[in-house]
Every structure is written in structure tokens, then in C-alpha cells.
């Protein structure tokens, strides 16, 4: 009898590290969540691990909780990588078509992609962590999507490469190795979230994924089924809380509570005062207008930056499937209407389905996307074997 597939995924976030253990029966689409846990993260800044020792301690804590809850032993995990050091670059490669009949073979395609990858203009401390073919050319014929079996002399490929600052990649890897965990694969955060919520149809017509986290906002644009732009902005929902704290001259923890409880006022005008209990018997009173002014300025800034990124993509914001918002920051009431107005696009929040027993929260998109990517690569195992997978690469680092 075919065995259940077990997937372990960890979303290393600026506010929280979230972990999940999922089991999938071979004959069912349902995902049985054996364990879900989250713990506050202290070793990250704006999506990047800056204190690997601290992150290791937290990962060990999370792993123990997950193992206990799921009654499994966790050896390997699927993880994300965040931070604004992650940038998009382009690479171009060219090879001679090798077969005597001049038909492009899979081997030629692999070679030209590898060539393009090595020609990505990275600085010495930068590395390509993911790459996607954009188009191929054969001799003078450009814009080819699939060159397999087409005839010619020279095959060229243009790729979009996702590049990262190596010391931050190393910090992330070290954090997991310190916790005795092998990394199965590592996906840039916005791509993991996109996996959870975007459909192939949306990607085909044009869509932008926006993941508003605590200290970062991920943006991924898809056009004609392909990723055409990606950025991770160093600003997120915690900046709204920080600004509310300054405006109301109160602690960040209190401002965070005010944002969660009274966030719906951020997009409204009100001359009212509101109250919140900050300690037993201690009430903090504040004018709504001060809180909403500070919050609105910051959320406007976040959307201005998102708009700039959308404009960089080839279709410059002409995205009929609109914007899909996820991340904890998507919980801010009124954000969908604000996004529609600011970006001049259809907007919605999507919460992935199929994870039995889990709360419906857009902050789980990255984690869910990592699980779905894991399931996909289990299915694709024979094709993936043709390339050195992350699993193999990361094994090199293992003691
Ligand atoms: N109801 C709410 N209204 C507004 N913001 C909210 C709400 N609920 C959660 N948030 C915010 O969501 C953020 C956490 O989101 P998330 O879990 O996606 O972040 P993260 O993944 O840890 O961070 P990052 O992706 O930036 O590294 C916090 O800043 C929190 O204040
Ligand atoms: Mg996140």
C-alpha cells in the first residue's frame, strides 16, 4: 500500500517562526495537519537572520513542540528566505545545438540555462538562489517559450534570477544546521505565499501577490504564467504599530494592541476618543484621529512602494487578475478597499483551503505555500533529480 507523504515546513518570519507537520494520503487532496506551532522570533531583522545562535535556539524549541504534537521525528524541513537583500536580476546564455539533426534536446536546454545562470551579474558576496527561464531564441527567432525539438544552430536563453546576499543565506542555513535539521528546499517568501494562493489562470492573465508581514512586504508579479518581478520591501505591519506608538506616545506593545483592536479606524475619519485596558484597572484613552493619521501615512507609504514595484514589471501594472493580499498585515480591516484605490486594481485576500483543522488566517500563506511546494517536488522527484537539488547542495554543509 502506498505510504502517506509527510511534509515539515518552517516559515522563518520577523515576528514569528511558524512550523507545520502535514500528512497527505496518496489518494486524497486533503492535508492532515499533525502539528502546528509558532513562537516569537528574536534573531531576525526585516526578514533576515542577524543572530543565527538565537534563531537556532528558537528553531530547536519549535522543532521540539512540533515533534511532541505530531509524534514524529523531524529530520528535514522546507523553509523560506526573506529580506530585502533578495533581488531580481537577469541572465543570458547561449550554446550551440549539439545534435546532428540540429533539433534542440533537453540537454541543450539544461546547458543553456546553466550558462545563463553563471552569467547572472552577481557581486562576489551574492548568489543566485532560484532561476526561471523567461524566453529562448533559436538563431534569430526570439520569444520562444519551449524550444524542445525545434531546429537551429544556436540556442539562447534569458532567465530571471533571484539573487541573495550570501552572508544572510549562510546565517539562515547555519540556524537550521545548528538545530540538526536538513534543509530540503529554500523558497523566497513571496514565491512560497504565491504558491498557496494564486491559480495558474491568475498567473496567466497577470496578477500581483502582496505579502504584508511584520517587518517586510513581499511583492511577486506574474504575467503570462511567469514570474516577471519580485521584491521584498523592508517595511511591514509592525511599522504601523511603531508609528502609532510615537503618535500616541505609548509603548509599542500597547500600540500593537490598539492597531489590532481599532485598526478599522485607520481608513476612516473620526473625532472620537477610544479606551483600551493596558493593565488590570489601568485604562489608556486616546484620540482616534491621531492613531488613524499615523497608521494611514504608513500604510500609504507601503502601498506607494508596492505600486513602484508593480510598475517595474513588463506590463507596468496592467494586471487583470489584480492584487492578492496575504500576510498578517492583510488582517487590517479595510485594507482590500484601500488596495483597490491605491493600486487601481481588483484586490482580495485569499486564504488557502485544504489544511484540515487550521485557523483561517492570511498570515499562514507562506507556511502553506511551502507545504504545497514540498508536495509538488515529491511528485516531480524524477525531473528534479536531473539537477542538483537544494537537498543535495545543503547536504554538503552537513557535518
Ligand atoms: N488584525 C490585524 N490588523 C493589523 N495587523 C495585524 C493584524 N493581525 C496581525 N497583524 C500584523 O501582522 C504582522 C505579522 O504578520 P506575519 O505573521 O505575516 O509576519 P512575519 O511573517 O513574522 O514577518 P515577515 O514576513 O515580515 O518576516 C504583525 O505586524 C501584526 O501586527
Ligand atoms: Mg512572513
- Percent of residues in helices comes to 25-40%
Number of helices: 12
Mean pLDDT: 93
CATH architectural arrangement of the domain at 87-166: 2-Layer Sandwich
In this entry the ligands are: adenosine-5'-triphosphate, magnesium ion
Q: What percentage of amino acids are in beta strands? A: 25-35%
Reconstruct the topology from this structure.
Blueprint lengths: L4 E8 L3 E9 L6 E10 L3 E2 L2 E2 L2 H19 L5 E6 L5 E10 L9 H13 L7 E13 L2 E4 L9 E12 H12 L4 E7 H9 L2 H6 L1 E6 L4 E7 L2 E8 L3 H12 L3 H11 L10 E7 L2 E6 H25 L10 E4 L8 H9 L3 E3 L5 E2 L8 H15 L1 H4 L5 H6 L4
Helix pairs in contact: 1-3, 4-10, 6-7, 6-8
Bound molecules: adenosine-5'-triphosphate and magnesium ion.
Question: Can you tell me about this structure?
Answer:
With 399 residues, the protein is of the alpha/beta class. The chain has a domain at 87-166: Dna Ligase, domain 1, CATH 3.30.1490.110. The protein has twelve helices and 19 strands. The strands form five sheets. The chain has a six-stranded mixed β-sheet, sandwiched between helices. A five-stranded mixed β-sheet has the order 14-13-12-17-18, sandwiched between helices. Strand 13 and strand 14 form a beta hairpin. 44% of the residues are buried. The structure holds adenosine-5'-triphosphate (ATP) and magnesium ion. Magnesium ion (MG) binds next to loops.
Amino acid at each position: 500500500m502506498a505510504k502517506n507523504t509527510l511534509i515539515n515546513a518552517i516559515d522563518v518570519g520577523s515576528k514569528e517562526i511558524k512550523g507545520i507537520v502535514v500528512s497527505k494520503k496518496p489518494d486524497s487532496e486533503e492535508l492532515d495537519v499533525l502539528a502546528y506551532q509558532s513562537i516569537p522570533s528574536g534573531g531576525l531583522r526585516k526578514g533576515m537572520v542577524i543572530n543565527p545562535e538565537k534563531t537556532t535556539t528558537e528553531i530547536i524549541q519549535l522543532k521540539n513542540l512540533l515533534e511532541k504534537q505530531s509524534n514524529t521525528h523531524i529530520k528535514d524541513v522546507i523553509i523560506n528566505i526573506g529580506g530585502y537583500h533578495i533581488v531580481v536580476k537577469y541572465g543570458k546564455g547561449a550554446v550551440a545545438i549539439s545534435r546532428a539533426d540540429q533539433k534542440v534536446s533537453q540537454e541543450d536546454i539544461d546547458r543553456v540555462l546553466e550558462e545563463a545562470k553563471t552569467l547572472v551579474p552577481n557581486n562576489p558576496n551574492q548568489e543566485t538562489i532560484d532561476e526561471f527561464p523567461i524566453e529562448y531564441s533559436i538563431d534569430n527567432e526570439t520569444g520562444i517559450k519551449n524550444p524542445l525539438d525545434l531546429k537551429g544552430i544556436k540556442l539562447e536563453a534569458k532567465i530571471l534570477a533571484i539573487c541573495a546576499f550570501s552572508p544572510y543565506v549562510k546565517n539562515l542555513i547555519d540556524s537550521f544546521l545548528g538545530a540538526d535539521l536538513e534543509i530540503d528546499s529554500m523558497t523566497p517568501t513571496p514565491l512560497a505565499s504565491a504558491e498557496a494562493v494564486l491559480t495558474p489562470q491568475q498567473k496567466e492573465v497577470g496578477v500581483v501577490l502582496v505579502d504584508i508581514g511584520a517587518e517586510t512586504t513581499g511583492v511577486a508579479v506574474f504575467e503570462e504564467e511567469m514570474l516577471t518581478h519580485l521584491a521584498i520591501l523592508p517595511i511591514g505591519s509592525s511599522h504601523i504599530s511603531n508609528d502609532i506608538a510615537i503618535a500616541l506616545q505609548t509603548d509599542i506593545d500597547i500600540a500593537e494592541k490598539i492597531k489590532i483592536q481599532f485598526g478599522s479606524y485607520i481608513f476612516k475619519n473620526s473625532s472620537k476618543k477610544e479606551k483600551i485596558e493596558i493593565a488590570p484597572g489601568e485604562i489608556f484613552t486616546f484620540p482616534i484621529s491621531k492613531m488613524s493619521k499615523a497608521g494611514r501615512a504608513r500604510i500609504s507609504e507601503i502601498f506607494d512602494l508596492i505600486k513602484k514595484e508593480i510598475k517595474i514589471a513588463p506590463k507596468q501594472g496592467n494586471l487583470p487578475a489584480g492584487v492578492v493580499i496575504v500576510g498578517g498585515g492583510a488582517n487590517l480591516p479595510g485594507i482590500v478597499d484601500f488596495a483597490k484605490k491605491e493600486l487601481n486594481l481588483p484586490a482580495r485576500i485569499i486564504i488557502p483551503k485544504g489544511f484540515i483543522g487550521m485557523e483561517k488566517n492570511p498570515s499562514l500563506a507562506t507556511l502553506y505555500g511551502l507545504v504545497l511546494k514540498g508536495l509538488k517536488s515529491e511528485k516531480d522527484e524524477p525531473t528534479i533529480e536531473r539537477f542538483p537539488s537544494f537537498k543535495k547542495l545543503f547536504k554538503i554543509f552537513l557535518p
